[in-house]
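Changelog entry: the Lysine exporter protein (LysE/YggA) record was regenerated in this release. Current contents:
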Amino acid sequence: MSAGTLAVFAGVVMIAYMIPGPDWMVILRHSARSRPAGFVAAAGVQCGLAVHMTAAAFGVSAALLHSAAVFTVLKIVGAAYLVYLGAQALWRSWRGSRASDVEEPLPERVFRQAFLSNVLNPKAALFFVSVLPQFVDREAAVAPQVLILGLLDIGLGALWWGLFVLLTARLSGLMRRSGPRKVLDRVTGTALVGLGGALVATS
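Regenerated structure tokens:
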């Protein structure tokens, strides 16, 4: 695997990270409340990505995604979870301001939400079984290359989400006020519900 291949792969990965999706919405929701919560959410997303990387390295993702029934179940579960998170945010925005809404959620809960939103997203698995193999040298051992590319992906993601959290955490002051907090919950809630619907339509 050449340095040029790694550089091109890094460029593709960064473009993928910059395109808004479920991970964006989940991390944005938490980082806008506080910087620590944003970092915990980012860690949850990247740990979910590590699951996809490991599965791909051992061929599990490819085997699962080549089964129409398994893929359908996976995408429905993933879509349902995104819709659940979105509905939760929308409900919070409509039920009125309460002291508990301002309090920072437990780190374990933030991590679990971010981890599950990523690991239940079949599109994340698809990246590792469709895009990533394009950069693998078929003449060499495949699993080690997948792990190297996957670790590069996760490392770049850690840098990207770190910057993302630092920038969006500036909104935390605004989020202590009821109005902006409701707007963010409604925007991210609607986006998550929409992304869940789009996920169901994935073929």
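The longest helix spans residues 68-94.
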